[in-house]
Specification:
Radius of gyration: 21 Å
CATH architecture of one domain: Alpha-Beta Barrel
Largest sheet: 9 strands, mixed
Shape: globular
CATH class of one domain: Alpha Beta
Oligomer: single chain
Strand content: 15-25%
CATH topology of one domain: TIM Barrel
Bound molecules: N-(aminocarbonyl)-beta-alanine, zinc ion
Structural class: alpha/beta
Helix content: 25-40%
Number of strands: 19
Distance between the termini: 36 Å
Length: 467
């Protein structure tokens, strides 16, 4: 099966140029001018930009959390991702209490089997520390798992102490595994939450009091210091504020192998959105929490100036009004108190258009930087490159056709995520994915779904780069 894409403008993290692309089977076979190929299906991309399919390095599909399970499974979540121009994601598999890391990965593979419609890998999240877990880290790369996540937050559930953190970092350095970290001081959140609840302060807005920026910055700085001592590669997930990013700047200036991710929601949702009267603010409860417009501007700047390397979604969807019409319980669980709100915000479908429109049209970075932070950098760091994350001969033909002039108003009424609200409701974006190709196959064309359930593939990843 051959496909020839004619007349498009190719945009990668480094170049912008007009050329044709010949796809043979699942791979890009040739890039050049005036290509001809007998028997190939011709797709005319005149006036369109061709970018590598998006790679979302941080998602939670079908994950038990906060007393329920995330609303999107591997079918609904991945299908929504494809509609938004994302062709690969890396989800967090959870180690089970009493289980091994690789058993956690196997469990998550089963969740995806028969449902996957785009390609995917797994990070493994440590939930049961101990010597056996630390010893197992060296076995991860052979299974294609080259990153793990540890938590400095969620005391009593996922949180690890500095002993475990340091041992994990040492083992990861030896094994060539990337350490990813949720940086917030969970001891402080635990104490403050208990005090607030005892004082009857359980409204949504107190979530912010239990997760102040200082404890994000402190934990980030601590993790970075330990990464410096051990020499491991560290990836700080969901960074929200200037205070934490300053720690990242310092660590990078010291020559430590540390990198940072932020997420779409931190650009658009703020503390004031959580302080509205009533329960509406629960939609934006996540950890670390949303901050301020000033922090958002600092994050935009940090994505542009390479202090931060990635924008992911931390897609973790819970219905605002769940638990009815056959749906899982959702945010309504937190009406019993802010500490019971399932933490997380949906966005796997929205990341690319929202970050394109507000970033590129908004004059915050150029289109090549957009490709870097949404596709190429995650591919490089998570060991997917050059199979994924670029448009080059030999790479998987994962291509998103971007119509720079197409306008769309984002809404829960039209999105494909299995969740009853959208963080970007009413946002008008210009620039829209009109076709998504995964390994040579058009899986979304002009809003029409073309993919078979189960056709997405698990990818064994190699050790990634430091950026
Ligand atoms: O609130 C969040 N971020 N939910 C997802 C779990 C995590 O910590 O990434
Ligand atoms: Zn986290
Ligand atoms: Zn997450």
């Amino acid at each position: 099966m051959k496909t020839l894409i004619k007349n498009g403008t190719i945009v990668t993290a480094s170049d912008t140029y007009k050329a044709d692309i010949l796809i043979e089977g699942e791979k890009i076979a040739l890039i050049g001018n005036d290509l001809k190929e007998d028997g190939a299906e011709i797709i005319d991309a005149e006036g369109l930009v061709l970018m590598p399919g998006g790679i979302d390095g941080h998602t939670h599909l079908d994950m038990p959390f906060g007393g329920t399970t995330t609303a999107d499974d591997f079918f609904t979540g991945q299908r929504a991702a494809a509609f938004g121009g994302t062709t690969t994601h890396i989800d967090f598999a959870l180690q089970q209490k009493g289980g091994t890391l690789l058993e956690g990965v196997e469990m998550w593979k089963k969740k995806a089997e028969g449902k996957a419609v785009i390609d995917y890998g797994f990070h493994i999240a440590v939930t049961d520390p101990g010597e056996a877990m630390v010893r197992e880290i060296e076995k991860l790369p052979a299974a294609g798992i080259t990153s793990l996540k540890v938590f400095q937050q969620y005391k009593g559930l996922f949180m690890v102490d500095d002993t475990t953190l340091f041992q994990v970092m040492q083992a990861a350095k030896k094994a060539g595994v990337l350490v990813m970290i949720h940086s917030e001081n969970g001891d402080v959140t635990d104490i403050v939450t208990k005090q607030l609840v005892a004082a009857g302060k359980t409204d949504v807005k107190y979530h912010l009091v239990a997760h102040p920026r200082e404890i994000e910055a402190e934990a980030t700085g601590r993790a970075i210091a330990l990464a410096g001592v051990t020499g491991c590669k560290l990836y700080v997930v969901h960074m929200t504020c200037e205070d934490a990013v300053l720690e990242m700047k310092l660590g990078r200036a010291r020559g430590y192998k540390v990198m940072g991710e932020t997420c779409t929601q931190y650009m658009f949702k703020f503390e004031d959105d959580m302080r509205v009267p009533g329960y509406e603010g629960a939609k934006w409860a996540c950890g670390p929490p949303v901050r301020t417009p000033k922090d958002a501007e600092y994050l935009w700047k940090s994505l542009a100036d390479t202090t931060l390397q990635f924008v992911a979604t931390d897609h973790c969807s819970f219905d605002f009004e769940g638990g009815k019409n056959g749906k899982k319980p959702g945010k309504e669980l937190g009406k019993a108190g802010f500490h019971k709100i399932p933490n997380g915000i949906p966005g796997i479908e929205d990341r690319m258009p929202v970050m394109y429109h507000n970033g590129v049209n908004g004059g915050r970075y150029d289109i090549n930087r957009f490709v870097a932070i949404t596709a190429t950098n995650p591919a490089k760091v998570h060991g997917l490159y050059p199979k994924k994350g670029t448009i080059a001969v030999g790479s998987d033909a994962d291509i998103v056709f971007w119509d720079l002039n197409k306008e769309h108003t984002i809404s829960a009424k039209t999105h494909h995520m299995n969740v009853d609200y959208n963080a970007y409701e009413g946002m008008k974006v210009k620039g829209w994915p009109v076709r998504t190709i995964l390994r040579g196959k058009s899986i979304v064309v002009d809003g029409e779904w073309k993919q078979e359930k189960g056709a997405g593939q698990f990818i064994k990843r190699h050790s990634g780069e430091f950026l």
